[in-house]
Please model this.
Amino acid sequence: MSDPAAPPTQIKPDDQRPEHPDFWCKRFGEGVTPWDAGKVPAAFADFIARQPAPLNTLIPGCGSAWEAAHLAELGWPVTALDFSPVAVTTARKILGNAAVDLVCDDFFTFAPPRPYQLIYERAFLCALPRKLWDDWGQRIAELVPSGGLLAGYFFLCDQPKGPPFGILPEQLDALLTPHFARIEDVAVDDSIPVFSGRERWQVWLRR
Ligand SMILES: C[S@@+](CC[C@H](N)C(=O)[O-])C[C@H]1O[C@@H](n2cnc3c(N)ncnc32)[C@H](O)[C@@H]1O
Model:
């Protein structure tokens, strides 16, 4: 039972809580999106070009969804998912008529119609407060069956205040190694300033 004499807990407004869509709606609405690369990153394009066949792909927290447009151009089946309606409106403008399944829903609760062979990560994990990281790891493992891949950019540094929230290599390993094995890990040379020198391209194979 709570102590009636205790001071009221300070709860931040929704647009100051990154776990809430309003946080992101405000920033997309005001055009303040310093994480947005405005392009298809090189390691992603290279990885996609190396795949022998299209993979059913999920891009969680897709934001502007540049990469979804690239996959659709190549004829890949792709779902771009974001829980911010304003982000989804932004993505819709960028995607035009591209054959992308653009979904406004919460990564942690949406019901996928079928399993994904690839989940692409960029600036989504680092957008999540630390208290959601375990759930992220479990949800990724749930969405990708054995033989599937998680590939993308990871913001590896000690930056507890965010977003972007940095994750240490050993913390990322703790989230993923129960279900995945890392099969690629390289430095990134086309980072935008907010991530520069602190992100790596990694690919993880679901066991
Ligand atoms: C930092 S932005 C990155 C956007 C994009 N991935 C990029 O690289 O530009 C994080 C995005 O994740 C979305 N997001 C955060 N939590 C989410 C959740 N639980 N479900 C779906 N989208 C979420 C936000 O709305 C925002 O568009």
